[in-house]
Amino acid sequence: MKQHIYIKTWNGFSPSTSVKKNKLSDHYKKFYNEGNNEFSDNEQWLASKLSVAEDLVEILKPYKKILSLGCGRGVIEKSIIKKLDKDSSIHGIDPYIDVSSQFELGNLKIQKASVFDCQLPEYDIAYLNTVDYCLDDLEYSKICTRLFQLTKNGIIISQLMPPNINYLFSLKYRIGLFIKSLPISPYVFWGWHRSIDEHMNLLNNCGYTRFTFGYHKNNLIWLHAT
Ligand SMILES: C[S@@+](CC[C@H](N)C(=O)[O-])C[C@H]1O[C@@H](n2cnc3c(N)ncnc32)[C@H](O)[C@@H]1O
Predict the structure, then answer these.
(1) Domains of the chain, with CATH numbers?
(2) Predicted TM-score (pTM) above 0.70
(3) How many A from CA of 171 to the centre of ligand 1?
(4) Which atom of ligand 1 is nearest to the CA of 135?
C-alpha cells in the first residue's frame, strides 16, 4: 500500500494547487521554469545531496557509462563525476529542466530529454535518485522497462522511503489524507512512497529478476535491480 505525500511548499517553492494527481510533471515544469535557484544556497539541502553523492560513488564505481534519469540540474552528478575514474561518464537526462540548465563538462552531460524521445546509447547502469516518488505506477513501469532495454547491469533506485505500514493503517493518516485531498486544502499532492515489495513487484513486471539493496548514510534504502 502506497503512502500519499502532500506538501504545502518546498524550500520556498509553491506548487500549483490546481495540479491533478495524474499530472505531477506540471510541478516540475513550473519549478524549473520559475528559476528557483535559491534553495541550492541552502547548506543543509546541499550537504544532504553531497552525502548521497558519496554513497552513489561507491555503488557506481564498477561501471563506466552511467545514465542518471531525472537528474534535475545535475547537482549530485557534478560531485559524483569528480570521484569516479577518469574514463567514467555520466549522462543526466530530465524532461522538465529548463534549457539553460543543460551543460556538458568533461565526462558529464546534463540534457533536457526524456528516456523515450532521444536516441540513447546503451549504458552500463542507470540510477534514479529521488525520482520514483513522483512517478505513478504506469510511468514508473514504462520508464523501468525502457531502462531494462538500455542498460547492461540494470538500475539503482536511490533513496527509497518505504512507508511505515502501521502509520498507513492509522486513523491519523487516513483523516490527514482526507483533509489534505480536499479542494480547499492548502496542501498539494506530491507523490507516493512505496514499500520495497511494491517496488520489486513493479520492477519484476518490467523484466528485472534479481534485487540487492543497501542503506545510504541517511538510512534510506537503495535498490539495485537487474
Ligand atoms: C526530487 S527531484 C530529484 C532530482 C535529482 N535526481 C537529485 O537527486 O537532485 C525529482 C526529479 O525527477 C524528475 N522527473 C519527474 N518525472 C520524471 C520523468 N517522467 N522522467 C524523468 N524525470 C522525471 C523531475 O523533473 C525532478 O528533476
Answers:
(1) 48-177+193-225 (3.40.50.150)
(2) yes
(3) 32
(4) 16
